[in-house]
Write a structure and sequence with these properties.
Length: 293
């Protein structure tokens, strides 16, 4: 088996993740010292006179109030357009909860032996459709109680609020226990469990970006039959099988880790329009070309 390539995408992605987290620190710090060109956090971010709002919280606010707010509709356009073109990149490139979850996962993978890590990943999973049940259930519950629930318990929102609280008031709130609970759940039970199965915002962004232009595509001719890195959980911390074409699926976040890690250079980012190729068909194509070679 070939040696893994040097990561080309992850250093840039990690830099963007850290800068996105530092932005949440910088905004309240600048506000505290009288500069208000930037305000808020990733639920509702003000950039001078432009407002950018989370699509899920905006959708829930519209549904629960039963009124279309033009300002809110305009504010949710930037993340919607981003998802339409690049897919669920907020989850893998910008979300502060995603960064904390990745760090926790990397620590766990270093602590576990290769065999234990593989066994852990195979035994602790949830059905993928859980993500869609959570999204629908979250919206229905918001309608029942008459307010946007995700505005309250959104992990990126909590992190932004708590950083602002720490800088303005010098204290931290109990909301951080929810973030800690998520990290413990993912560390001990289900790998990247909240992001993969329980985040309604991630589900909505994935649904919006299912026909995205940027996708991870498999070159079946280069994919080696004996390589089992996908099945061992080394290629994708989200539990996807890139060799089966799942880089084009609705669940892929375009993080680029599989593109970096594939030792046979069989995975690439491509720009294309239209529906994703069904995962089952990608398996057939991979098998056919492998046998032919």
């Amino acid at each position: 088996m070939k040696k893994a390539k040097k990561a080309r995408i992850k250093p840039y992605r990690r830099t963007v993740q850290i800068l996105s987290l530092l932005l949440l620190v910088a905004i309240p710090f600048l506000n505290l010292h009288g500069w208000n060109g930037l305000t808020g956090w990733y639920q509702s971010l003000g950039v001078f006179k432009l407002w950018i709002a989370s699509p899920l919280e905006s959708l829930e606010s519209i549904l629960t109030s039963r009124h279309f707010y033009t300002v809110l509709l305009v504010a949710m356009l930037p993340p919607v357009v981003l998802a339409l073109v690049l897919g669920r990149v907020f989850c893998s490139w910008m979300c502060p909860m995603g960064l904390l979850s990745e760090w926790a996962d990397e620590i766990k993978r270093r602590l576990l032996t290769r065999r234990r890590a593989r066994s852990f990943e195979s035994k602790h999973r949830l059905p993928r459709r859980t993500l869609w049940f959570v999204l629908v259930g979250e919206i229905l519950l918001s309608l029942m109680v008459g307010t946007s629930l995700f505005s309250i318990y959104s992990p990126p929102g909590i992190i932004g609020r708590e950083l602002a609280r720490a800088i303005f008031l010098g204290t931290l709130g109990g909301e951080l226990l929810f973030i800690l609970a998520i990290l413990v759940f993912e560390f001990l039970l289900v790998r990247r469990g909240f992001c993969r199965y329980l985040c309604p915002l991630g589900a909505l962004l994935g649904w919006i970006g299912q026909k995205r232009s940027l996708k991870v595509q498999l070159d079946a001719a280069k994919c080696a039959r004996g390589c089992r890195l996908c099945e061992q959980g080394k290629m994708c911390s989200w539990g996807l099988l890139p060799r089966c074409g799942e880089g084009e699926s609705i669940y892929c976040t375009n993080c680029g880790d599989c593109v970096d890690l594939c030792p046979f250079d069989a995975l690439h980012f491509v720009w294309q329009m239209g529906k994703p190729v069904p995962a089952g068909r990608r398996v057939e194509l991979w098998a056919e070309e492998s046998e032919a070679s």
